[in-house]
Amino acid sequence: MMRGHSEAMVFAAASGAALAALVGRRRALAAAAASTTVVDVAVVGAGLSGLAAAVELHRHGSEVKVLEATPRVGGRVCTVRTLGADAASDDAPTGALPIELGATFVHGRDAGANIIAHMAYESGALGPTAPRAVPASRKWAPAVYARADGSRLPQSSVRAALNRFDEALDECDGFFREGKAVPHAGATVADYIVPRWQSLYGPEPAVSAGSGRVGAVDGVDGDGGHGGDGGAAAGGAGFATAGTRLSRADAWDVLSWRQRLESCVSGGGTLADLDLASFGEYAELPGGDAAVRVGYDRIVRRLQEALPTDAVRTSAPVRRVCWGGDAHEGDGRVRLELEDGSTVLCRVAIVTAPLGVLKQSCALGAGGAGGERPLLTFEPPLPADKAGAIGRLGFGAVDKVVVEFADDADVGGLRSISCVWADHDRADVGGEGDAAAGVLAAEAGLPRWARGVCSFWRDPVTPCRWTCWMGGADAAAAATESDETIASGIVAVMRAFAGRDVVVPEPRRVLRSKWAALPTFLGSYSFVAAGASGDEVDTASSPLGARGQVRFAGEHTSREYYSTAHGAVLSGIREARRALRGSLGVATLRPELWVPTTTAKARQERSEQDE
After folding, report:
1. Where is the Amine oxidase domain (predicted)?
2. Are the beta carbons of 435 and 153 closer than 8 angstroms?
3. How far apart are CA 356 and CA 396, in angstroms?
4. Structural domains in the chain (count)
5. What does each C-alpha distance from 406 to 409, 460, 505, 508, 577 come to in angstroms?
6. Residue 458 parent element (H or E)
7. Is residue 230 part of a domain?
8. Domain limits for position 213
């Protein structure tokens, strides 16, 4: 009797629990239904491309909702103002300007050819006076080329060598621009440049133990394996200039330094990552580069202010884009499922997620791998050709560390320090082993990830601030380290390369970016990787659905302006106008707010064409 009573009680309890669960599910469904938003267009991402797309759609009367995964807008524009302009901190440097941890330059300051330059002038982001263009010779030519023991390389010889490198890099552009045949299928920029370095300096010495490298350019055989005329330099003695000389090992270490610099410029970790046939398709805009001094976020704010106040929703990560088959709405609308359980239904979705997020989505799939769940998935999954193109494009790690000292810190009167790491074994050259012992000992005391450090640059406006640039695999590794580890490690690197006679004081503060470690970015900017081409860029930007109801924008979808802020903005406008003409059925579009000059018009018109 007692047993039967207990069973009845258990059954009743179980029934009650089941009923409660059913009621809970019904309430959740009702809440989800109540939280469904219906708009004309939903934009995934509130970076420059997403905001530009939203503004263009809003101008044409479309109801648009921008869904941003992070708590802030701007994407890879990350302006820190807490200790800069518009701040009231008592210990901010005198005359301090904002700190840019993301986009920094306007690449092409001619406002008639560059939409970002136009927006920067209009918003005042470039400052009260017209900025001076940064000449290439000054932008990438530091005042000091130093070793980790503080010794200096002969500046005139280093610059002469770097001029030779730049000449070879210009020739790499010519393969695309002049239609020249590359040496072999899948050729890289390294395949072209390394033999020319060999002809100047002789074969590459053995790689130093602990350097973590397999050659001056990773993945390249440095022992004359490229053929060419590696033995042409008499005895491999080096290239003499103005009474100074670079040894063979020094010369190859300078090439390694220039590769580190190129990783910060192009986004690829090494020269062997960059496709030779497509290298010249990237288009430079006229006017030279200009640093944004008063805040890149002014451009972001200008775009956001052109939208209704409720158009942008932050901290709203989209987890699934349902666009076809049984996954989307029966009337052809796209359904976006957010992390909080809410839903957005739209006639068109424009996805501006960074390439790193898309690459993760393609690699892991909807179910994830090893328990790892991608940030964003598509249902059905992306077509094989599109997923393949996304996978073949490159997305590199480039980061900055800003070190701020007291206002009166002099740091030896230096304006920059270029860190030339000993990537090559002096014993392999002969006669250099003893001289290099101090350098190698100094490097051994520094963190392994620090080998990604290229240079330190002193800010000309706020001279107590120094910016360290680093790129490649070492930058990606550094992104996973704590702020405290990076701060102490970077200061140690700066002290080592500055030398014992230069006082590098304790910093007032250290700020850093870590784009590769942030799940909403997973990298810094895109490049055309070895074996890929501009065709992959076009495929990555191609729409989904019979009516093109899912579209893709972002710097990685700009065939000629990838990796740039202007490429991001133009891609957003491009996809907005394509959606208006196509899926939204707008017969006549309003004139664009900005039209490029004649010199850039043909290029712009090609990017504006419908599929």
Report:
1. 48-135, 273-580
2. no
3. 9
4. 1
5. 5, 15, 8, 6, 50
6. strand 453-458
7. yes
8. 153-281
